[in-house]
Design a protein that fits this description.
- By secondary structure, the protein is of the alpha+beta class.
- It is about 20% helix and about 30% strand.
- It contains seven helices and 23 strands.
- It has helices at about 20-30, 45-55, 80-90, 160-165, 175-185, 215-230, 335-340; strands spanning about 10-15, 35-40, 60-65, 70, 95-100, 110, 115, 120-125, 145, 155, 190-200, 265-270, 270, 280, 285-290, 295-305, 305-310, 315, 320-325, 330, 350-355, 360-370, 375-385.
């Protein structure tokens, strides 16, 4: 067992069954008084559970650590990962301290700081990029100040945590970490990302490719609106991210050279066999395209009434060919005002970048797949050889 005299572990459980409770109680007992177990059966509220743990803790430093974080070997000569985080957290100007999180057993980035993008709101910087030396400005290697760090691994001095009021329990599931980080920034502190602390986060790597749950997205949008209502001066503004950089989620280049999410270069379109008569017309789905060298940008919006088609799959097809491209939904908080409908459609806008080098020239009809159906986007896309 990892021996250390100046730490304690507080396990907060909101609803395990009797069998698991006994296992946790037994495990806690092996830490010889340095661990405690708090069981409080209730609906999931991440903020409340963290506050319960903080109130139980006796130390002057708090580390909030998700149960899906895996500690991996760290390459330090005279210290350890906890000491690195603690040393940073005890700096007078520092508030929350985060770590680099990778997807399990891989070099793919899950978290190296949270950016408040102008167009897509809060998102993980370089999420799902390969953790190598080629990422812009080496922000996956340097230690730096950032607006927000994830609550999955979050260290802070207890006095600063209490001054911020702890986690706001109105944020039950998402954006609780963002909210407290913004509060700390407004109090004059700096949140810091330590890239020299590397952990695995067992969050689903494929989740970004799956069809997004509508209820979860409504909850996320509501939480984002709550954050901006509480911190209006920071709406779509990030003092630690240059406005000269692209303002769309998970992009890796400057200016208007748009990249598709997940890809570090414009994605290759997946080629499918053409299928006649599989389109259905929806006048509320639109796409526009502009050429850029061998790249092509598709931009538009996808919704039907108050229903948004998140991260739509786009098909370009004619009688000879059919190509499949994954688009990325982005946030436009004023979109519903311009359309005169419910604000739940603020994520209807989308974009994607496509490398057309290997695509055959021709005029293609554009369609969007949503709800298991294909909707005609009512536009033609011309690809020049």
């Amino acid at each position: 067992m990892y021996k250390r005299q100046n730490y304690e572990i507080v396990v907060v459980d909101n609803g395990s069954n009797d069998s698991n409770r006994k296992e946790y109680e037994k495990l806690v007992g092996t830490f010889e008084g340095q661990a405690s177990y708090v069981y409080e059966k209730a609906d999931f509220n991440f903020s409340h559970m963290c506050n319960v743990g903080a109130a139980k803790a006796k130390g002057n430093l708090l580390l909030f650590l998700n149960d899906d974080i895996e500690i991996i070997g760290q390459d330090y000569e005279d210290t350890d990962w906890l000491s690195v985080l603690a040393g940073q957290a005890k700096q007078e100007s520092t508030s929350a301290v985060g770590a680099k999180l990778l997807y399990p057993d891989s070099s793919y980035i899950q978290h190296v700081g949270v950016i408040n993008y102008e167009s897509s709101c809060f998102a993980h910087l370089y999420a799902k990029a390969v953790d190598d030396e080629n990422i812009k400005a080496h922000r996956n290697y340097a230690d730096y100040d950032c607006l927000c760090v994830t609550g999955a691994c979050f260290m802070i001095e207890k006095a600063k945590f209490d001054k911020a009021g702890g986690f706001d329990e109105a944020f039950e599931v998402t954006h609780n970490d963002v909210d407290i980080c913004l509060t700390l920034y407004e109090q004059g502190y700096y949140n810091v990302l330590r890239n020299d602390v590397v952990l695995f986060h067992h969050e689903s790597f494929s989740r970004g490719d799956d069809e997004i749950d509508e209820e979860k997205n409504r909850r996320n949008m509501y939480a984002r609106d709550m954050v901006y209502e509480k911190h209006p001066k920071l709406e779509k503004y990030d003092p630690f991210y240059s406005p000269l950089l692209t303002q769309t989620e998970n992009n890796y280049r400057f200016g208007d050279e748009i990249y598709s999410v997940i890809y570090r270069k414009p994605q290759k379109a997946g080629r499918l066999k053409p299928a006649a008569g599989y389109m259905e017309v929806s006048p509320t789905v639109k796409v526009t395209e502009t050429g850029y060298h061998d790249d092509m940008q598709l931009r538009g919006f996808a919704y039907n009434g108050n229903k948004v088609y998140y991260n739509p799959v786009i098909f370009l097809w004619n009688e000879q060919n059919c190509y499949r491209i994954k688009a990325q939904s982005v946030c436009d908080r004023a979109f519903h005002l311009r359309k005169g409908v419910d604000k739940n459609i603020n994520y209807a806008p989308f974009f994607c970048g496509i490398d057309t080098t290997d695509m055959e020239s021709g005029t293609y009809r554009c369609a969007i797949r949503a709800d298991g159906k294909y909707y005609d986007a009512q536009t033609d896309v011309v690809i020049d050889g």
